[in-house]
Amino acid sequence: MAIVELPDPPASSTWIGGRPEPSRAADAGGLHDPNSGEYLADSPTSSHEQVERAVAAAHAAHASSGWSELGAEGRAPYLERFAEELDAIAEQVARLDAVNSGVPITVTRLFGASNGGTVRDAAARARALGDSRRLDADHGDVRVHRVPWGPTALIMPWNAPSAMAVKKSAYALAAGATTVLKPSPASPWSAELVVEAAHRAGIPDGVVNLVYGGARVGAALVSDARVRAISMTGSTPTGRAIAAAAAPNFTRLRLELGSNNPAIVRADADLERTAAAIVSGAMKLSGQWCEAPRRVIVAGTVIDELVDALVVELDGLRIGSSLDEATTLGPVAFEARRCELDAQLAALVAAGARLIRRGRTPSPGWFFPPTVAVADTIDLDLEIFGPLLTLQPATDDEDAIRAANAGHVGLAGYVFSRDEDAARALGRRIHAGEIKVNGTSVLDMAPESSQSFFGLSGIGGHGDADVLDFFSGDRVVGVDRPGLPL
């Protein structure tokens, strides 16, 4: 494994009302280099008092209406400067994310380079939508105004730290909302750089706040009655906890959670291309991608051929440090993640699965060799989140659909077939928000793509229009209609 220099960690300051202040070290755990297991720094956490003041700052900024009353046009120059600041730190952000997540630097660099564009897109979409629209009313001026709900908690995952912080922040700010960001305790470093960039862009004090910590901090944040909306990306158990904590306040929720996404492979599929697409999708972000294909359901007549094709693709992966330019599969983000994958693998073996493990993984470090578990049936309660793929046979399309729609599903699905019409028809029957035919790309299939989170995969949906819409509600203002009978 190539020797690469680790980036210097940022201060991990808690930001309240436009000012940084020291965070304290978490009571347990710490941040480690996933490539070696080496201890790097204490995990930062904010105190209960800091969380309270961060929410108070966001609440005061919302109550003053200064940010929301600028309107989409007035906020756009701030967002343009925010985008420019993010462009300037793209490489620094990419290196921090590669260490915090285990995702190869070639991928985190793509995320880092696109962060500025994400902010520009949010600003442009908000300007095009406008702040209000006039309704058809003969008697006078009646308008629907877009109004931010209020202080918004943005809770990020650890697999794409800066990309999620920027996407959530950009659309919340474009909608006029004030925010409190909380990164994952496993990947906190790039969040401070994002907030510093917002501060340098001149975004008013109190509009963007930042706290650190785990479940204790998260619970205090999402249960606060002043927080009126919560956008979270993460695991289903965490999503359930957030929903329960927010329920008494009827807080608006957008929860993008887990899913064991099915990939149906019909007997007529091009197996070499299918295997390349499945391995590419399953191993993206070191296997830590929420929409990755997890369960391959293949026509039984071609299962052996598909296994052989998958092995060829797995053998082509370059396993190594997430900071090595040549790496195509890095480590998983932290030790507990690898331990959970080991436990899932053991459960599959105990249930009779046959394992195919390829590649030589470096040691030490949190590496998990790319693995295919083959069995007649696959039954897993929790989402697989790493370079582990399951494979099971199906007798026909009906059998494949039954398997695809069973268990922890709802986010994404895939169908592989030379008959694209048949594949699309099959895809429409998969219980998920996005179904791709003959591909496993990360990006949306069309600029106006929109998908809902079905089943256990969450509440809400994504697509740029959906994300922007989440952060604000409609308020109708006008003179009442005269002469109504009731």
Key structural traits:
alpha/beta, seven-stranded mixed β-sheet, Aldehyde Dehydrogenase, Chain A, domain 1, 486 residues, globular, six-stranded mixed β-sheet, single chain, Aldehyde Dehydrogenase, Chain A, domain 2, 2 domains
Give the structure's gist in a few sentences.
This protein is of the alpha/beta class and 486 residues long. The chain is 37% helix and 20% strand.
CATH superfamily of the largest domain: Aldehyde Dehydrogenase, Chain A, domain 1
The number of helical runs is: 14
General shape: globular
Number of domains: 2
How far is the N terminus from the C terminus? 77 Å
User: pLDDT average, as an integer?
Assistant: 96
Strand content: 15-25%
Q: At CATH's second level, what is the architecture of the largest domain?
A: 3-Layer(aba) Sandwich
- Which stretches are poorly predicted, pLDDT < 50 over at least 5 residues? none
Instruction: State the helical fraction.
Output: 25-40%
CATH topology of the largest domain: Aldehyde Dehydrogenase, Chain A, domain 1
The level 1 CATH classification of the largest domain is Alpha Beta
Radius of gyration: 23 Å
Number of strands: 24
Structural class: alpha/beta
Largest sheet features: 7 strands, mixed
